[in-house]
């Protein structure tokens, strides 16, 4: 699996900007820091880290397509869309035919978005 295509600056939505804006239930600044921190970590598997990064980028409105479903929205994803992507990740993770690399990517997306949505206190 590969990370979804990035948005160009002109495609980037203007909503939910600023340090106090929320991404899911987390302050935008916290999600930005989580993405920056992820790039400096080396203990996660490559596919897991790619999934986490894809999830954070999509949640921040920096990627045009959702990392698991590939769906696109004309705006930064709200909590409803973020939760739908978590649900899609759960379905894929429960599928015994999912290949290990894809499973790691999807696990990364799942774990990152559960934190963004407030379903977990563990930041990846």
Which short descriptors sum up this protein?
124 residues; mainly alpha
Notes on the structure:
- There is one protein chain.
- With 124 residues, the chain is mostly helical.
- It has one domain (25-117).
- It has 4 helices and 2 strands, in the order ββαααα.
- The longest helix is centred in the last third of the chain and has 18 residues, at 100-117.
- The two termini are 19 Å apart.
- Residues 1-14 have a biased composition (Basic and acidic residues).
> Unreliable segments (pLDDT under 50, ≥5 consecutive)?
7-16
Number of strands: 2
Helix content: 40-55%
Calculate the terminal CA-CA distance, rounded to whole Å: 19 Å
Number of alpha- plus pi-helical segments: 4
- Rg, Cα atoms, Å: 13 Å
Question: Structural class, please?
Answer: mainly alpha
Total domains: 1
Q: If you average the pLDDT, what whole number results? A: 86
Instruction: Trace the largest sheet across and list its strands.
Output: 1-2
Order of helices and strands: EEHHHH
| Proportion in β-strands | under 5%
Biggest sheet, in brief?
Answer: 2 strands, antiparallel
């Amino acid at each position: 699996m590969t990370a979804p295509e990035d948005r160009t600056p002109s495609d980037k939505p203007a909503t939910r900007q600023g340090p106090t804006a929320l991404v899911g239930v987390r302050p935008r600044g916290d999600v930005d820091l989580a993405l920056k921190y992820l790039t400096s970590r080396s203990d996660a598997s490559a596919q897991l880290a790619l999934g986490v990064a894809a999830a954070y980028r999509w949640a921040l409105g920096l990627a045009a397509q959702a990392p698991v479903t590939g769906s696109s929205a004309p705006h930064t994803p709200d909590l409803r869309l973020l939760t739908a992507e978590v649900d899609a990740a759960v379905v894929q993770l429960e599928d015994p035919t999912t290949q290990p690399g894809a499973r790691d990517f999807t696990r990364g997306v799942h774990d990152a978005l559960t934190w963004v949505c407030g379903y977990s206190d563990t930041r990846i």
